[in-house]
Design goal:
The protein is of the alpha/beta class. The chain has 8 helices and 6 strands; from the N terminus they run H-E-H-E-H-E-H-E-H-E-H-H-E-H. It has a 6-stranded parallel β-sheet with strand order 5-4-3-2-1-6. Helix 3 (65-74) runs parallel beside helix 4 (93-99) and helix 4 crosses helix 5 (109-121). The structure holds pyridoxal-5'-phosphate. Residues 40, 42, 63, 85, 167, 203-205, 219-223 line the site of pyridoxal-5'-phosphate.
């Protein structure tokens, strides 16, 4: 028997990840269809996106615009929702707004304005998660709060619609503890903004704990695509 093809490999990984999600949902007493799997394809070619899409995956994430834009362009014929999950400079907002449906990594008001303007100019709808850090551990603990949701004809964008946490918490806390703090924060935000139902938390190593704490979106890279050679 030869090497498994890339399609077989990805199909197998996707199946395992879906089983893990289903098991986590079951033990959390949640419905599996409450949880959206996002394939994080950074460092992997557009061909892999195409294969995973063919296997039924609809949500994909990237973290660097200069890699994401050509990949999204190469997959333009596919019905895909792109999530942007990396640090973003305002001067890249116009580019990201052309392909992304969600920016999960908004960390300042000026970026919300830039994205809102870019989305309405591109006549596209765009959701944002704004990161809230729990402590000074730069860039780790984040909760999402949404920004622009610009639609065709809605030039101002809509006020912030709130979503949930993005990324995991401080390294020195157990993931389960951090995720439950995210869930608490998300609940209090949702009390004010009822539409704020999205909680993006959990990666390959810890998405079960995130699901247990209420994550609606899990961002899975290596468990789906394999360990990438660290080029970035
Ligand atoms: C790379 C990345 C992921 C996926 O991480 P894995 O551990 O490979 O699953 C999730 N979220 C963000 C923001 C990332 O940059």
């Amino acid at each position: 028997m030869g090497e498994p093809s890339r399609t077989e490999e990805l199909a197998n990984n996707l199946c395992l990840v879906r089983e893990r999600i289903a098991a986590a949902a079951r033990s959390a007493g949640r419905r599996v269809d409450e949880i959206t799997l996002i394939g994080v394809t950074k460092g992997w070619p557009a061909d892999d996106v195409r294969i995973l899409h063919g296997l039924g995956l609809k949500h994909f994430a990237e973290n660097i615009d200069q890699h994401a834009a050509p990949k999204a362009e190469a997959c333009r014929d596919l019905d895909i929702e792109w999530h942007f999950v990396g640090q973003l400079q305002s001067n890249k907002a116009a580019s990201v707004a052309r392909y992304a449906s969600v920016v999960q990594s908004v960390d300042r008001a000026s970026l919300v304005h830039a994205l809102s303007k870019a989305a309405s100019r591109a006549e596209r709808s765009l959701d944002c998660l704004v990161q809230v850090k729990f402590d000074s551990d730069q860039g780790r603990g984040r909760i999402g709060r949404a920004g622009p949701r610009s639609r065709r004809g809605d030039r101002s964008g809509r006020g912030p619609s709130v979503h949930g946490p993005h990324d995991r918490g401080p390294i020195d806390s157990a993931p389960s503890e951090v995720f439950s703090r995210f869930a608490d924060l998300s609940r209090s935000v949702r009390a004010v903004h009822s539409e704020a139902g999205l909680i993006s938390a959990g990666m390959s190593g810890d998405f079960e704990e995130a699901i247990c704490a209420g994550a609606t979106h899990v961002r899975v890279g290596s468990a789906l695509l394999g360990e990438r050679i660290k080029l970035r």
